[in-house]
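U., I forgot to send this yesterday:
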Amino acid sequence: MWLTQLLERNRQCYPERTALVDEQRAVSWSELADRTLELAHGLTELGIERGDRVAVLSKDRVEVLESYFALARLGALFVPLNHSLAVPEVADIIERVGAVAVLGESELLDRHPELPASVRIRVALDKPVFEALGTVAAQGALPAVADTDPVAVLHTSATTGRAKGVTVDSASFRAIALGWLVLARPTDDIVMVNCCPLYHGSMVVSLTYMAAGATVVLMPGFTPQRALAAVERHRATHMWMVPQMLRFMLQAKGADRTDLSTLREILYGAAPMPLDVYDEAVRRLGCGFRQVYGMTEVGGPFVTLGPDEHPAPGDVTARIPCGRVVPGMSARAVDPAGGERPRGEIGEIVVRGPGVMRGYWNDPEATREIDLDGWIRTGDLGFVDEAGRIHLVDRTKDVIIRAGQNVYPSEIERALMSHPAVRDVAVVGMPDEDYGEVPLAYVVAEPDTGAVELLGHVSQLLAPYKRPRRVQFVEQVPRNPAGKIIKKLLRA
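Result:
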């Protein structure tokens, strides 16, 4: 089984090298392999069996990944939970997957004193009871687990509706990791600061680099100061973040006084990279950049644009392309009937390959809806250029149809972001009696910036039918922890 083999291989190759480190502790590959096996036995002694679902409610810490590896070893499915969800949302996910246990930080567990009836085991990761698991248990035989057995239920980010449970197996993790590493060509001295949470598909990036023997640095939550300190303290070579995190890091006090000279590559994804942020980051950091385009339903990151393919600052006038699909996976742009679009023509991006999910947990109808003759619909509009690179244009659900003409919110957002006073923006459609739907722009801007000024700015960049009907100033654009705009809140 892939996750177990990953640990065994790295223990053999790099026994004393640090595998994981957080703000409390560090573990070597040898220690991680031993603890994972020990913990798998301990969880079995608690009554967790093969096929059981176990929810994990925690901020990023070493014990989270220890739990994932241990549960996979005994054939149970780990179900990461977004710790920022409200009590009813957490209960809904636990009930839908029928979780028999919840492992989590005591502070977070205390917020959920009453859990669905299926839960019969609660264990705090930061208490001695977790540390003691397996240390005195009888070391009986663990079940044989195949790569094709389900290993996790990962939930979507739910930017447009209710989160769906994506069922994946170890074969998915393996396919994505091997394909990704062929293109990324990692060296054996990588130290990666992971700024993204371990409770959704972005965690596959960490697992992928762990497969290559990298050291992964975990933080309990992102702050610019914490990220900067982690790079300096651990002499990090790589960072994994969303573009908004990079913007905040560049703006942080003390950024210029932090030693970031060890950085070789910043991986970014989940949202488009603003060109002003990219230009400033290249100038100030002097490292390479790697774009990550992924989706939980297709196994995580399946497209990348490497440092050698990124444009020089100032050479980009539109969005940076996502890159090429990783070996083993296939992607193309299709029309509504499923026919492949010619190069350069916009269609929905669909994906197939060994990394794709087994389906949505107990939701065959939603699984059928996302399937197109064996291809997974991403919901992203884009095209494939002559060099085989995928370019994203917008989300299919976000397209505004104004009097029969397609208006892409991302194009308006880019135009507004090019104004020096604009800090963040989100565009959604609003009903209109004459045109059916027109663009409405929510903007975070410097004080004393006026709507007339911004509308005048975009009038020089966009055709009349693309221009926002109205600009509404807000203090903050709602985003989830992955940096994606939560447009359902704006539409509401």
